[in-house]
Recover the amino acids of this structure.
């Protein structure tokens, strides 16, 4: 039996200098477009390490030192059809938001078991395409957060 997922995750909004945002489509849920997301692999895994690991696993992009921690955490109810992945009684997740600026036309190599397609979209279109409200809200905040250059 696989270990239960931890109810702590990261969301990484990957964008280029022109604010085109990378969205990836879930393999198991066609039509579910999102930014890079993923749970911590183990209790105590540093959030930035989890974010960099998920970016590499899901897109093939190496984050390096360009990853920005927004110091923003969203708590949300785990969709009922995904709760079986967590320990009994767990129904909320805390998601920590990061962004990653990459050069325009950065190549993407998907983890085929997890995702089936990718696209770069202007930030407003990307926000509208996301199935997750917290993902859409993060993308909507992107221009403001970059203008303020909030601390890393």
């Amino acid at each position: 039996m696989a270990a239960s997922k931890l109810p702590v995750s990261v969301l990484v909004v990957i964008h280029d200098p022109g604010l085109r945002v990378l969205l990836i489509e879930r393999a198991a849920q066609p039509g579910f477009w999102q930014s890079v997301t993923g749970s911590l692999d183990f209790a105590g895994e540093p959030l930035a390490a989890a974010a960099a690991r998920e970016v590499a696993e899901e897109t093939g992009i190496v984050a390096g030192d360009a990853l920005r921690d927004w110091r923003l955490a969203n708590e949300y109810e785990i969709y009922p059809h995904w709760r079986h992945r967590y320990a009994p009684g767990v129904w909320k997740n805390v998601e920590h938001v990061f962004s990653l600026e990459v050069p325009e036309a950065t190549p993407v190599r998907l983890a085929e078991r997890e995702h089936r397609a990718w696209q770069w979209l202007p930030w407003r279109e990307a926000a509208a395409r996301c199935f997750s409200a917290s993902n859409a809200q993060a993308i909507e905040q992107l221009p403001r957060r970059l203008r303020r250059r909030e601390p890393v």
